[in-house]
Amino acid sequence: MSLLVRRSTLILPVNIPRFVEKAHLRGADAIMLDLEDAVPLKEKDAARRLVRASLPLVARGGAEIFVRVNRDPATLAEDLDASIYPGLDGICFPKTESAEEVEELAAQIANLERSRGLAPGRIELALLIESPRGLLNLRAIAAASPRGRTIALGPEDYCLEIGVGPSADGAELRYPLSKVVIVCKAAGVAPMGLLGSIGEFRNLPAFERAAAGARDLGCVGASCIHPDQVAILHQVFSPPPEKVEYARKAAEAFEEGLRRGTASVSVGGAMVDTPVYVRARRVLEYAEAMAAVEKRKADACARSG
Asked: Which pLDDT band, with edges at 50, 70 and 90, does 165 fall under?
């Protein structure tokens, strides 16, 4: 599986045509068509009927495409039936609370893949943890299905469940988000999230602090609800050019040292030994993967005119 670069996931309600039409111009790494919280209950049936035609529209910018479904079993099957078609990359499952529901979801997706001629395992899962119960079952959830590639903490619903409002410093989210990171790293799943609210789309400095706080805990990307937030997520979750350049110098110096018989060299007055070298190689690999994502998006935009 290729290295995941999904710094930004722009969430938009599939039933708002102007949002769908312009989504490919926003530059996000991924776009999530929402059938859940952003769609009123009375409009959900109509929204489902829009998903299939929306997939190629939002894909014109080269972003990965997800659909966030409703957790309620009464509507989940209808959401999946409306969504799993060529062009879809994954399903976002909200309010995940058990491994069993992930396993059942994966089985439903597999059946639809078979019936619609999609490659087995084509559709991945982006899982949302939004309750204390989900957090307590996180280890089992992370191991429930190989389709699960990312797990994110949903700050608004999690705060609702524990009876507090999102604070300015995200203190109430530090423990759950840290646990998401630790469990994901152990399971080989990418941790996503914000150390703060996703909703303050006009307060971009606060959003940037929330993203940077999550990055510093180990998250590799986050979701957003406004196009202005996309560039912030890319800045926060991308290694700065000077870090990439230092990583290049450190890797080259270490490899030269190995040829000379030493596993410890000095670069810029700092020691570069094996752990530092491995970290440098990871920075370089991520920068290369990030460049490939940017090229994919640019090429797609060029083709779409």
From this structure: confident
Average pLDDT over residues 219-228: 97
The alpha-helical segments, DSSP class H, found in the chain are: 17-22, 44-58, 73-83, 99-115, 132-136, 138-142, 155-162, 171-187, 204-217, 228-236, 241-260, 274-304
Those residues whose C-beta lies under 8 Å from the C-beta of residue 272, and which sit 6 or more positions away, are: 250, 253, 254, 257, 264, 265, 266, 280
Alpha-carbon gap, residue 29 to 294, rounded angstroms: 8
pLDDT computed for residue 204 by the predictor: 94
Q: What is the DSSP letter of 75?
A: H
If asked whether residues 160 and 255 sit together in one domain, one would say: no
Residue 1 has pLDDT above 80, yes or no: no
Domain boundary among the residues 177, 202, 236 is at: 236
Cα 60 to chain centroid, rounded: 19
The DSSP 8-state label assigned to residue 165 in this structure reads P
Alpha helices in 94-240, H assignment, sequence order: 99-115, 132-136, 138-142, 155-162, 171-187, 204-217, 228-236
| Domain with 149 in it | 8-236
CA distance 112 to 135: 29
In a domain, 92, yes or no: yes
